[in-house]
């Protein structure tokens, strides 16, 4: 079952979340070696464990959870039911997890670091999305990134959004500093599309299929994150949970279901059904759905290796430093606990 909450309902849920726990103790780093996946379902899945998954919005970065919500029969053999909670951005997803309102949260690594510093039982577990499949679109009179100087750009969150990082890196690569443009919080992928159409923002980094909708409406694509090697080899979205859950059998079953759905996504026999799910959940046209498939499946944005990769996390941190962001940890792997992946998929 997929449960959608409107933004006001979620914000009421998140208001007042406090984080007053001891500082996080560093945990050991892990190898990037691919474990041998054991996707065997439990012998008797007589009941379903509902896993509430907090995420920004339906888009290709959350392909596995989106499919899990639309095709409950994929999770049921493992005793798992996906319950999706849209939070509009990554920081809100983290807040929902810290406030014990959800089971897991999928968010950018940097949106979680301040919380994990104060909540030592919450850890990053596995990558949800790799790479930075964003394109920069602008108003028709703006033809390149340099022309965004002095303009207003819409982002999902002022700090901690995957699109926010993409905007900052593409700006930096084109000679723009953080003070050369103004960032405003403009909401989800579809919200940013609407803001562009209303001319309330001058540009944004957007995902497919919304980027195709904007291009078709005459908004030029002025850059793409794929132009920059530093934005490719990163874990852009990661899974997080509290230790009191991720050490349970339900967590292991959820991970097995996640691995099985990933395998389903990459099976060419399921392409047409996957495209239909994409169009239904993410909007856009048939052509836009195909662009989502190309960026996230053909380009391997959906991780098949569920071990956190130290090099990819370090590259993410280095990107933030390059963009002039402060308080970036020197060792981002200290927030990772690979024990669930190791014991579940390496048996």
Explain this structure to me?
- With 347 residues, the chain is α/β, with parallel strands linked by helices.
- It folds into 2 domains: 7-131 and 234-345, Periplasmic binding protein-like II (D-Maltodextrin-Binding Protein, domain 2), CATH 3.40.190.10; 135-231, Periplasmic binding protein-like II (D-Maltodextrin-Binding Protein, domain 2), CATH 3.40.190.
- The chain has helices spanning 7-14, 63-70, 72-75, 90-98, 109-118, 162-173, 189-197, 210-216, 243-246, 249-266, 271-282, 286-298, 310-322, 339-345, and strands at residues 49-55, 80-86, 104-107, 122-130, 135-138, 152-155, 182-185, 203-206, 221-224, 235-242.
- The strands form 2 sheets. It has a 5-stranded mixed beta sheet, sandwiched between helices. A 5-stranded mixed beta sheet has the order 7-6-8-5-9, sandwiched between helices.
- α7 (189-197) runs parallel beside α8, α10 crosses α14 (339-345) and α11 (271-282) crosses α12 (286-298).
- The two termini are 30 Å apart.
- The relative contact order is 0.20.
Summarize the structure.
Helices cover about 40% and strands about 15% of the residues.
Which SSEs are present, and which pair or pack?
Layout lengths: L6 H8 L34 E7 L7 H8 L1 H4 L4 E7 L3 H9 L5 E4 L1 H10 L3 E9 L4 E4 L13 E4 L6 H12 L8 E4 L3 H9 L5 E4 L3 H7 L4 E4 L10 E8 H4 L2 H18 L4 H12 L3 H13 L11 H13 L16 H7 L2
Parallel strand pairs: 1-2, 1-3, 6-7, 6-8
Antiparallel strand pairs: 3-10, 4-10, 5-8, 5-9
């Amino acid at each position: 079952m997929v449960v959608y909450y409107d933004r006001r309902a979620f914000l009421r849920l998140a208001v007042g979340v406090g984080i007053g726990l001891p500082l996080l103790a560093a945990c050991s780093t892990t190898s990037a070696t691919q474990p041998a996946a054991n996707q065997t379902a439990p012998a008797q899945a007589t009941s379903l464990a509902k896993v509430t998954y907090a995420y920004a919005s339906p888009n290709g970065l959350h392909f596995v959870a989106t499919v899990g919500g639309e095709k409950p029969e994929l999770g049921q053999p493992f005793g798992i039911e996906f319950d999706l909670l849209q939070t509009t951005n990554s920081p809100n997803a983290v807040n929902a997890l810290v406030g014990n309102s959800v089971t897991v949260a999928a968010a950018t690594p940097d949106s979680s670091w301040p919380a994990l510093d104060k909540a030592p039982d919450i850890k990053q577990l596995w990558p949800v999305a790799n790479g930075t499949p964003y394109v920069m679109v602008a108003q028709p009179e703006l033809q390149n990134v340099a022309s965004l100087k002095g303009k207003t750009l819409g982002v999902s969150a002022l700090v901690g959004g995957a699109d926010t990082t993409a905007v900052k890196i593409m700006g930096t690569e084109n000679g723009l500093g953080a003070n050369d443009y103004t960032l405003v919080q403009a909401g989800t992928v579809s919200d940013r599309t609407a803001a562009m159409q209303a001319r309330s923002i001058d540009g944004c980094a957007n995902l497919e299929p919304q980027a195709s909708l904007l291009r078709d409406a005459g908004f030029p694509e002025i850059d793409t994150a794929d132009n920059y090697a530093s934005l490719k080899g990163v874990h852009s979205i990661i899974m997080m949970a509290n230790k009191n859950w991720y050490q349970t059998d339900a967590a292991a079953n959820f991970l097995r279901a996640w691995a099985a759905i990933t395998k389903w996504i990459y099976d060419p026999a399921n392409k047409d059904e996957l495209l239909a799910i994409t169009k239904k959940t993410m909007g856009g046209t048939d052509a836009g759905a195909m662009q989502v498939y190309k960026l996230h499946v053909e380009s391997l944005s959906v991780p098949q290796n569920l071990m956190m990769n130290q090099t990819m996390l370090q590259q993410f941190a280095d990107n933030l430093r390059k963009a002039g962001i402060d308080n970036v940890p020197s060792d981002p792997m200290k927030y990772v606990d690979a024990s669930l992946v190791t014991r579940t998929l390496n048996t």
